[in-house]
Specification:
Elements lengths: L18 H15 L5 E3 L8 E3 H9 L5 H4 L1 E3 L6 E3 L12 H6 L1
Antiparallel strand pairs: 1-2, 3-4
Amino acid sequence: MENCESEIHRDACVGILDHEQLSVIDQRKMESEINVRDRVYCPEPTCSALMAKDKLLKHTNEFFLGAEQVGARKCMVCGTFFCINCNFKWHYHITCDEFRKT
């Protein structure tokens, strides 16, 4: 229906939709709660998890001392370390530009 602003709650869909469809609803809900500029997706193709920048940094600092300064982050789902500046897997001891040239 055009211009409909009614919200269907996830709980009302349990028993009607399968697990995969419910996961899509969960994903869309999470996306709507994170500002577009604060969204980060895991660069690991088998993961691609959505995370919020501010929560990601707090999570990463537990594992990577000085992560904020160098741009290293750790996916909260699969554990892949990646660079927040270029969104590729973490490239130890080289800049983003140097990494792109390899």
